[in-house]
Structure formats: C-alpha cells, structure tokens
Amino acid sequence: MIAASLQPSVPDWYGVAASVLLVGIAFFLVLRERLGLGREVLVAAVRAAVQLVAVGALLLVLFRHTGLPGALAWVTAMVLLAGRVAGGRARGLPNAMRVATLAVAVGTASTLGLLLLAQVIDTSGRVVVPVGGMVVTGAMQGASLTLQRMRDEALTGRRAVEARLALGLDGSAAFAPHLRTALRTALIPAIDGTKVVGLISLPGATVGLLLAGVNPLTAIRYQVVVMYMLLGAAAVAGVVAGRLALRTMFDDAHRLVA
Amino acid sequence: MQPVLALDDVHVVRDGVTVLDGITAQIAPGRCTALAGPSGAGKTTLLRLLDRLEEPTSGSVLLHGRPLPSYDVLEVRRRVGLVQQVPVLLGSTVLDDLRVGRPVLTEDEAVELLGRVGLRDQALSRATASLSGGEAQRLCLGRALAVGPEVLLLDEPTSALDAVAAKSVERVVRALVEEGLTAVLVSHDLRQARRLADDVVVLRAGRVEEAGPAADSDYLAGAS
Q1: What's the predicted TM-score (pTM) here?
Q2: What are phi and psi of A178, to 5 degrees?
Q3: What's the complex ipTM?
Q4: Which residues of B fall below an 8 Å CB-CB distance to A?
Q5: Residues 162..201 of A with a Cβ closer than 8 Å to B: which?
Q6: pLDDT tens across A216-240, in order?
Q7: Which residues contact B161 (CB under 8 A, 6 or more apart)?
Q8: How many CA atoms lie within 13 A of A18 on its CB side?
Q9: Given phi > 0 = left and psi -120 to 50 = alpha, else beta, which region is B205?
Q10: What span, in angstroms and rounded, lies between the C-alpha atoms of A153 and A179?
C-alpha cells in the first residue's frame, strides 16, 4: 500500500519569498531584451501564486474534513473540466463535449476504481486527489487525441468512408480502419512515455517522492503504478471516446454526418 | 417496362439553396442513363440520392416502385452500387480490395470479376498502390460488382483519368450494360455521354431540361 505520511523537506514561506527573486531576474531579462512580455511575466507569477495558494487551502480543507467523498468530488470536478478541454479540441464532431466527458469519466472511474478496490492506493484524500489528477490527465489525453484524430479522419477519409458505405457496409464497419488509426495515434504518447520513463524523463510522481526524501527504490514502485495507470486510463478513455463518437458520426441511414 | 429507379417530384434544398427543384425522372432497366448538364446543375446530388447517401428535402426516390426508405438502407446500397469520381482503393492488394464489400468472395470469383472489368492479367496479390489510374478505377468497378448490384451509379468515373485510361473504363461500362446491368452515368463530357448512354436526363439549375433516348437528345447533339 502506498500512503503519504512523510515529513518532506520543503521550502518554508521565507524560501518561497526568496524565490520571487527569480521572477525578478526573468522580469529584468524580458525588459532588457525588449520582448514586450514584462506584464505577462508578472501576471503569470502572481496568477501562479494565487491559484496555488487557493488550491492548497482548498486541499487542506478537503484532506482534513471531507475524506474520500470530498476527494472523489474533487476528481469529479477535474473530470468535468477535462471533458470540456478534450471536447473543445474535437470541435466539429457531433456532441464532442458529451462524448469526451463520458470517455474521461469512464477512463478515470475504471482506472482509479481498480486502484482503490485492489488497495493499490490509499483511500485518503491526499492520495486520491493527486493520483486522480494524474489519471484524469491520462484519460483526457487519450480521449482528446482520439477525438481530434477521428475528426481529421472524417474529413480526409471521407471518400474512403463513403466508398465503403456504398458497398453496403454500416457506419461502424465503414469507419473501422479510421478508428483504428485514430486509436493508434492516441495511444502512442502513452506507450512511448511508458517505454522511456526513467531513461529520458523522470516524471512528477518520482520527483515529488525523491524530493520528499523517499528511498529511490520505493519511489519507482509508485512510478510503475503511475505509468501503468496512465496507460490504462488513456486506453480506456480513448476506446470509449472512439466508440461513442462513432455512434454520433453517422445518422440512421448510415451517412457520415460529422 | 417498370423503371428500376424513379424520382418523383424530388426537391433538395441545402443551406437555403435549392439544388434540385422538382425532379421527376426514370431509370430504365438494362440501359445506361446519362445525367448530363453544366457544372452545378445537381447531377452528383441526384446520383447520391439514388444510393441514399443524401436524402431529398421533399418528394421520393423509388426502387422498383417502392420508396427507398422502405428498404433497409444497407440492402439499397448493395443493390445500387456506386463508383466515385476519383478511384479510392480500400485494400492493400487487389484481392483485399475486391473483398471489402464481400469478404466471402473466393479467389475464382475474384479472377472472374477482374475479367469482367478488363483486368484479367492482374495478379490478385498485386499491391493496389502500384495500379495506374485506369486500372484503379476498373478495380473500383470490380469491387462494386463483387457485391452483386443490379444498378451501378458512376460519378464522372473517367474525369480523373487520361484519355487511354478513360477509354478502357468506358469499354468496361458498355460491356457491363450489354450484360444486362443498369447504369447511371454522371458526365459533363457530352461525347462520352453519347458514346455510352442509351438514355439521357439533362439537368440545368436543378431542373430536368430534357429526358429521353440519348440518340434524340438536342443537348448531346451539341457535342458533335
């Protein structure tokens, strides 16, 4: 069981204040090089601080007082937001928002549900929220890439799809090769990420645990779980998004309407 | 003789624009009917209505006297095949391509089909990517025939081909009609329409301007 009960060495508020110096350096360089980004640097820095303090305060309340239901409510809010982002990327497909949200929800629920049921992760809010966030991100990428690619395939592959329809194939069969292409494209980032993890990239979960003083061999155990769940979430969300989108792309007379 | 396909007062309005404006026409069995007329007259839209790839805004399209929506749409498309303007190959080999609409097609049947579309010498294992334009379009014809249609819709089937390839496709189409197949040909090439068609329906601005035997057509006569 992976739980978080560590006392990591993190910067105190004085340290955070000192890091403002780095914003000052960035601001100075931007002004000196006349990039016209001075205001944006300041706005970004202030925004980051305000957003993170707000999220930190909210998580504090969540972890202390609401337990698992509160954490799941937080994950649900992330799913809705992720659905909007993924759906927005697939504009042009019918009901893209609804399809994307459902796909992210199913991808997240199945992956996170399995991790919780098998007691791979702790049910405390401080575990469910960050792990849920990673699962939602993986599911969002899977759904988003699948839907984007399906929309592109519907445009570029229209002649081929209609040629199959004209042979008496139904919509699903006529689009099947294009769905496969879309899913392959959507899953490649998750598969490649899994392949090179540790060699090229040291992901956030490992970095966080190492910073928190956890033994590297323990940290990688967590990372293995994270990579597998990202792969699972992307695959489930991608396939669900693909199947649901397919239903909306053809009308009753098996005509491509997307 | 009862027409295979008929259009009864068909209107198509798309995005507020009238594409077809009260079309009534018949497609006789065992003959090649050309849909002729200038660009934008609605020829391709009319052709797509016959395969239910598009739906009329009002009026009806009939197959053997029955409205198309009363049939299973997949059955309609198996009975009314379509060959598109630009050949789109769907399989990686000739045999794969022929099997898209009929997965149970045997190799003997495939060889026979290739013979009907003038590709007798082609190996079933040949990569479709290596076919010339004319060969590809004839393979598309063969693929449509594999499903066993009674009507073949041809949407400008030679416009993307050079003259020699176009002639090879024309020979195949004419031979298929002689075999008894019903063909509907969209063509803006009046000479081709004269060569291939038994009947003609001339469209202009979404209306039927002329319909009848191709030999009597004033519109096609303008080609000579």
Answers
A1: 0.84
A2: -75, -35
A3: 0.93
A4: 51-55, 69, 73-75, 77-78, 81-82, 84, 86, 88, 90, 100-102, 140, 143-144, 147
A5: 162-170
A6: 888 888 888 888 999 999 999 999 9
A7: B133, B134, B137, B169
A8: 5
A9: left
A10: 8
The residues in A 146-165 lying below 8 A from B, measured between CB atoms, are: 159-160, 162-165
- Name the residue in chain A with its Cα closest to that of B102: A167
Rounded to whole angstroms, the Cα distance separating B197 from B185 reads 8
Residue type, A57: A
pLDDT tens figures, B187-214: 888 889 999 999 999 999 999 999 999 9
CB proximity list for B113: less than 8 A, separation 6 or greater:
B98, B105, B142, B145, B146
Write out pLDDT tens, residues B159-179. Answer: 888 888 888 889 999 999 999
- Count CB atoms within 10 A of the CB of residue A22: 10
The 10 Å Cβ neighbour count of residue B215 is 12
Alpha-carbon Rg for chain B, nearest whole angstrom, is 17
| pLDDT one-digit tens code per residue, B98-123 | 999 999 999 999 999 999 998 988 88
